[in-house]
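Please fill in the sequence for the structure shown.

STRUCTURE ENCODING:
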């Protein structure tokens, strides 16, 4: 069996290239979960990157998305009619959005783009492309509703929620939120959308169906693959391999029901598009996993429940093509491992104890568990040589080490995290790895989540575990 080169995930669960190959984890604030709807101090996206911010980083509430609008869009104030004649009410917006939703359900393309300022072709073109893309996605549920309306007179701003459920991927309906700028230009005239962007603090926008014209969509039992023109051929030639990677991760889980049933993966070789998708902006990563909030958790923008039942994976295939086949599979298995157990993660508050070594260690171990410790290479050398260079750790990796902005520091943190999971598998059993990780995920906001998992799952203490881990590294690597 070919020996994989070192695959290390960096801060925020994003897959990054460090030395040889680095794999990320989750996007949050900076990675693990790209800080979408995440409470301060918690990351929402599991990605693979070497970003300086921790995976459970705080959120940026600024609206950084670029609105889609024509160069000649009308001004916010309209003087051709009295304010009373052109005033837009919340009921007006709700009726408009309801018609938009009905058009999608009835597969009426013309009705779907109606009202999107046809005087500016870019808006109508974008909505038409969105309609065409959504028609290709296997959706169990797909509808639009209004979350909030603000403004007065002839111009209003609405937060419009796209409630959807990808068949075989999402266990429950999830959301993507848009900001629509709506105007009425004549007395009692029709509404027109003059600009579209992601809602403030909405990091799940733009999704591939928003950003790509002519999206390629391939559906397998456990994975829905989306790709732009730069990776359409790659998607078609690797679809079976991605399905195998999904089946691999799901078949190994022994922690019980509740995992993600499947995975949605977006592929692109366009670096700018990759960094912009889901507003993750990860310059260092080549893969990222972004958590998606469930519909109905809240009536506002912020997801206060801490429940993210599904995820979206994006991979830069330019980097993938530069990897050996064995390493490429590791990238997808790592990301899918994050997405698989993401529904268990309590993100309702800041993390109470350093535990990113559990998050990233599990994904590293899961993606490479088919290899013996002796078969692994790290940065092109044996683990023994790598460890001899960096020494045996006397403590478990801290969150700041795992998600350090310094690639070498982060890479070492990923390495120790991976080895700690191998130690649990060797000393206690692979099933105990799943039980241990599950306990930490479900109690992630607790101040002693790792200590409690040591006690309740492994019947040991963190100090005793660390001592045993140190001895195991000396004798096994």
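FILLED IN BY: designer on duty
SEQUENCE:
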């Amino acid at each position: 069996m070919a020996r994989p080169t070192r695959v290390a995930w960096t801060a925020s669960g994003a897959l990054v290239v460090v030395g040889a190959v680095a794999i990320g984890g989750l996007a949050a604030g900076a990675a693990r979960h790209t800080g979408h709807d995440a409470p301060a101090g918690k990351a929402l996206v599991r990605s693979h990157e070497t970003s300086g911010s921790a995976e459970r980083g705080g959120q940026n509430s600024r609206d950084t998305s670029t609105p889609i609008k024509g160069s000649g869009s009308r001004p916010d104030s309209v003087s051709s009619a009295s304010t009373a004649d052109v005033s837009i009410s919340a009921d007006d917006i709700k009726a408009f959005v309801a018609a938009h939703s009905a058009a999608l359900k009835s597969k009426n393309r013309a009705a779907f783009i109606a009202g999107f300022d046809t005087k500016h072709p870019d808006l109508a073109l974008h909505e038409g492309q969105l309609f065409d893309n959504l028609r290709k996605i296997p959706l169990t549920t797909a509808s639009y509703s209004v979350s909030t309306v603000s403004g007065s007179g002839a111009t209003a701003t609405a937060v419009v929620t796209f409630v959807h459920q990808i068949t075989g991927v999402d266990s429950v309906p999830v959301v993507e939120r848009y900001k629509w700028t709506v105007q009425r230009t004549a007395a009692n005239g029709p509404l027109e959308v003059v600009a579209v962007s992601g809602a403030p603090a909405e990091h799940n926008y733009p999704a591939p169906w928003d950003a790509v014209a002519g999206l390629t969509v391939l559906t397998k039992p456990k994975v829905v693959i989306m790709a732009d023109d730069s990776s359409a051929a790659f998607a078609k030639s690797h679809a079976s391999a991605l399905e195998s990677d999904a089946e691999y991760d799901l078949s190994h889980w022994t922690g019980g029901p509740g995992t993600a049933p499947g995975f949605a993966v977006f592929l692109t070789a366009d670096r700018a598009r990759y960094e912009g998708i889901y507003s993750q902006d990860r310059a260092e990563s080549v893969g990222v996993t972004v958590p998606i909030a469930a519909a109905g958790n809240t009536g506002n923008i912020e997801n206060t429940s801490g429940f993210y039942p599904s995820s979206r994976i994006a991979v830069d295939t330019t980097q993938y093509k530069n990897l050996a086949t064995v390493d490429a599979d590791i990238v997808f298995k790592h990301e899918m491992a994050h997405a698989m157990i993401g529904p268990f993660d309590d993100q309702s508050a800041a993390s109470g104890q350093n535990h990113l070594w559990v998050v990233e260690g599990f994904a590293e171990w899961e993606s490479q568990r088919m290899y013996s410790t002796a078969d692994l290479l790290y940065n092109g050398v044996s683990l023994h040589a790598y460890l001899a260079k960096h020494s045996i750790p006397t403590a478990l990796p801290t969150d700041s080490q795992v998600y350090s902005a310094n690639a070498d520091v982060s890479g070492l943190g990923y390495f120790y995290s991976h080895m700690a999971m191998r130690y649990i598998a060797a000393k206690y059993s692979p099933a105990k790895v799943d039980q241990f990780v599950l306990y930490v995920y479900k109690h992630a906001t607790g101040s002693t989540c790792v200590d409690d998992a040591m006690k309740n799952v492994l019947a040991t203490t963190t100090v005793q575990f660390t001592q045993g881990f140190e001895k195991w590294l000396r004798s096994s690597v």
